[in-house]
Amino acid sequence: MQAKKRYFTLVSAGFCLVLLFYLGGLQFRTSRTRDDHGDQVAPRGAEHPWPRFPDPLLPFIQWDQAESENFNSQGSPRQKRDANTSIYKGKKCRMESCFDFSLCKRNGFKVYTYPQQKGDKISESYQNILSAIEGSRYYTSDPSQACLFVLSLDTLDRDQLSPQYVHNLKSKVQNLHLWNNGRNHLIFNLYSGTWPDYTEDVGFDIGQAMLAKASISTDNFRPNFDVSIPLFSKDHPRTGGEKGFLRFNTIPPIRKYMLVFKGKRYLTGIGSDTRNALYHVHNGEDVVLLTTCKHGKDWQKHKDSRCDKDNAEYEK
């Protein structure tokens, strides 16, 4: 009988303790509610609401402060394991924590491109990007007037097997006197990693820089900070081009092709499921999706029954 009383007292005390923690946590969460725009607001009935910033240019929060807030205690095991890799070092970056708006307040939105160094190779595609920036009204040749910085080092193709791959990029970036751990910098990238893994490591720590990247995963994309861009070829027109054939209220649009894709079909590894499924949509008329199996030195070991036909259509 005495044992039953002791167990009942212990369970009752535990229940009260859990209830106390629950009510305390609920009160804390209520006091830090957010509105539809993500801003902190005071709980209903509070006399002093959380401060709002009327200026659209948010105040700059020190990087160390933003990185330390809950970063070590939150996140998936994979993110904790990869915290020291280049793709995750700036995982918590947002505009209010990694972009200094005071540079834009002072001189307006001006973009500075680093001068190209003698001997540095640069692809035609990246040269087109730089030329488009330098030909715009936002360009400035004075770094002290700039709000945004773009490297002259070609970062588009970070596949080590590519002839466009720039070596020693890590040391070259770190030696830039304006780099400042990437703050207010924008990095362009189309390809990263090497077959068959194709990791999203660009080969150097981007720090606090924004990333304009093609095919970036949802795990690494930083909302309202990074920019998702499509893949484009070196033949893509830099500006303008011929007018399209789309007419007002014309459904479907009057054009010969509705969808076109041409690229390598990865037989194994990342991307293989998607590329191997394209033939279901390809009709050879207005939807043309061409893939080749000739990718990598040992592609014939993974060759399937569709490879010969796909390779032939790709070559046409």
UniProtKB/TrEMBL annotation:
Keywords annotated in UniProt: Glycosyltransferase, Membrane, Transferase, Transmembrane, Transmembrane helix
Compositionally skewed regions (Basic and acidic residues) per UniProt: 33-50
Record-annotated Exostosin GT47 domain positions: 106-312
Coiled coil (UniProt feature): none
Residue numbers spanned by region Disordered: 33-52
Keyword Hydrolase listed: no
One annotated GO biological process: heparan sulfate proteoglycan biosynthetic process
Recorded superkingdom: Eukaryota
InterPro entries, sorted: Exostosin, Exostosin_GT47
Regions that span the bilayer: 7-25
Gene Ontology molecular-function annotations: glycosyltransferase activity
Family under the similarity heading: Belongs to the glycosyltransferase 47 family.
PANTHER family associated with the record: ACETYLGLUCOSAMINYLTRANSFERASE, EXOSTOSIN GLYCOSYLTRANSFERASE 1
Protein name: Exostosin GT47 domain-containing protein
Species of the source: Eleutherodactylus coqui
The organism's taxonomic lineage, starting at the top: Eukaryota, Metazoa, Chordata, Craniata, Vertebrata
